[in-house]
């Protein structure tokens, strides 16, 4: 079983909850009100774009928290996600190895 300290980044690359400081990771401040973010718990996305669980593929995971509210399905949120600073950061950091949304969705099936 993978272990991860959600309060401190142990990986070289930052995950979305660390970048956005959303408080929806296990033990986060907003978990009692909003629950654990699906990106933080999506094990099928482990390692994709170098993240822990869905931490670096949040734009294809339904129910993530952005813009002050819980986001819906991929098709409904993708336009806003591609303008997100975190999405742009992952795209830049991963370069040619960046997994495109279609590839990520296939991995999550």
How would you characterize this protein structure?
- There is one protein chain.
- This protein has 109 residues and is mostly helical.
- It has one domain (16-108).
- The chain has six helices and two strands, in the order αααββααα.
- The protein has helices at 16-20, 31-34, 38-41, 74-81, 85-94, 101-108, and strands spanning 65-66, 69-70.
- A hairpin with a 2-residue loop joins strand 1 (65-66) and strand 2 (69-70).
- The longest helix has 10 residues, at 85-94.
- The chain is globular, with a radius of gyration of 13 Å.
- The protein starts with 15 loop residues before the first helix and ends with a helix.
The quaternary state of the protein chains shown equals: single chain
Strand content: under 5%
Helix proportion range: 25-40%
Q: Which ranges are low-confidence, i.e. pLDDT below 50, for 5 or more consecutive residues?
A: 7-11
Q: What's the gist of this structure?
A:
By secondary structure, the chain is mainly alpha-helical. The protein has 6 helices and 2 strands, in the order αααββααα.
Topology:
Elements: H1 16-20, H2 31-34, H3 38-41, E1 65-66, E2 69-70, H4 74-81, H5 85-94, H6 101-108
Antiparallel strand pairs: 1-2
Top keywords for this entry?
single chain, 109 residues, mainly alpha, two-stranded antiparallel ribbon, globular
